[in-house]
Amino acid sequence: MSRIPTYRGQSRSEQGMTLLELILACAILMILSSAALPIARYSIVHKKEELLRYDLRQIRDAIDRYKDLADSNKIRVEVGSEGYPPDLETLVKGVKLGAGDDKKIRFLRRVPVDPMTGQADWGLRAVQDDADSTSWGGKNVFDVYSKSQATASDGTRYSDSRYW
Question: pTM surpassing 0.70?
């Protein structure tokens, strides 16, 4: 038997992939993609956790700067607030420096969005509140935490501020 010549001198058996080769190639691709899917999910969760840590660090830093200025009597504070901001919006709106000065100092550009809940609604704690309290006393902001009840990749809860 002679070979049937086709395009550019190739025989018919050399022209394309067989059905078996296509099935094997698809199976290999499915195995590789199924291995990559959990990695992609973990990567997304990890990025959200990084963003949560960053946002909490920014808010807590702003609270600390407010407290430092209040302790050095550079800004006026309410009696009984112990030098902490009354709420997070005060950190965004800013406060006047000194008695005769019209300059305002802002501590945050905006209240960040909690990446775990998708809202700019954070859990707040006052100095008078218990460390594990889920309700805020309403007088001053000593600490912030995520309101998400989900569990982090390390097994802690996002709402547990001791870790974050």
Answer: yes
